[in-house]
Amino acid sequence: MDTPGLDVESVTGMVGGGAQVVVFTTGLGTPTGNPIAPVIKITGNGRTASNMADNIDLDVSGRDRGIRNDGLGGLRLFDTILMVCSGTETAAERLGHREFAIHRRNPTI
Questions:
Q1: Which of 10, 13, 23, 49 has an alpha carbon 20 to 30 Å from 1's alpha carbon atom?
Q2: How far apart, in whole angstroms, are the C-alpha atoms of residue 59 and residue 99?
Q3: The Cα angle at residue 93 between residues 89 and 95, in degrees rounded to 5
């Protein structure tokens, strides 16, 4: 989906376009959510997973297993999506992150 590049505006664009669940990949751990759809935050950055553990739903960096990649990241993500679709709260929901922004290309007169 072609949405703005800024994190909050991008998620808003995806949800506005009909996304029921957002899988948000993050390297730095942007703490963002959405008031309409759950936002699952996934990272492959071990430092971010460690420093922002309360904001991350899925760490696929391998840091917790002492390996770089266990090859099961896709299956773990699929399981996380199923759990969220079944009612498990995301980190953003637990933390009350409900950001919403609409990107404006040009001023309206």
A1: 49
A2: 22
A3: 120
Backbone conformation region of residue 62, classed left if phi is above 0, alpha if psi is from -120 to 50, else beta: left
Distances (CA, A) of 51 to 10, 14, 80: 24, 27, 21
Kindly state the tokens that stand for 62: 């391998």
DSSP of 79-108, one letter per residue? HHHHHHHTTPPPHHHHHT--------SS--
Yes or no: say if 63 and 80 are a contact pair by the CB < 8 Å rule. Answer: no
The pTM assigned to this predicted structure is: 0.86
